[in-house]
Amino acid sequence: QGQEKLSCNPKKENGTHVVLCELGNPMKAGAQITVDMELSVSGLEDMGDAITFHLQLRSKNSPSPTNASVTVTVPVEAQAEMELRGNSLPDTTVLPTSWQRMEGSRRLEDRGIKVEHVYELHNKGPSTVSGVTLRLAVPHRLGGHILLYLLELGTEGGMNCTHHPDLNPAQV
């Protein structure tokens, strides 16, 4: 007739998570009910591409070996939206027209003006992510001449970084 909230209790039986819901007691003979359930399941990152629920209807009053049982398989799809933000410090750099690079110098200031590029990769969710690869291409040569002298590359937050072979070739 109307809508009622079910009383459900989660428990663990034989290493399996079980949710028991009381549908009504007593229930009249021939009664028909419809149950809509919404389940919130966490920790699905390692579950593969589907999760299976085993549903069974049991009666306390008349136990029967033919209790109605059904298996429902629901596909699992993780979704995460990534966002890349970047800044250059300073944001604009102009070399003086009279500036000349000092060949063979190991001093940083003889190589040019220091510009730091900072990139932040953000997971906007809703799922967690792992195994993300960010490939960053930096134009360091132009016409056989050094355009940008790549000095160092660093990361924060437990990420691994593969260094470019042209990183700090003069060891300044």
Automatic annotation (TrEMBL):
- Superkingdom is Eukaryota
Q: Gene3D superfamilies recorded for this chain?
A: ntegrin, alpha v. Chain A, domain 3 (2.60.40.1510), ntegrin, alpha v. Chain A, domain 4 (2.60.40.1530)
Q: Does the keyword Transcription regulation apply?
A: no
One cellular component term (GO) for this entry is: integrin complex
In the bilayer, the protein is annotated as: Single-pass type I membrane protein
Q: Which GO molecular function annotation, any one, does this entry have? A: integrin binding
Q: What is its main location?
A: membrane
Q: State any GO BP term from the record.
A: cell-matrix adhesion
Q: Which residues form the Integrin alpha third immunoglobulin-like domain?
A: 83-171
Where does it localize?
Membrane
The record's InterPro entries line, in alphabetical order, gives:
Integrin_alpha_Ig-like_2, Integrin_alpha_Ig-like_3, Integrin_dom_sf
Which UniProt keywords are given for this protein, alphabetically ordered? Glycoprotein, Integrin, Membrane
Residue limits of the Integrin alpha second immunoglobulin-like domain?
A: 3-76
Would the keyword Glycoprotein turn up in this protein's UniProt record? Answer: yes
Q: What is this protein called?
A: ITA2B protein
Taxon lineage: Eukaryota, Metazoa, Chordata, Craniata, Vertebrata
- The gene for this chain is Itga2b_1
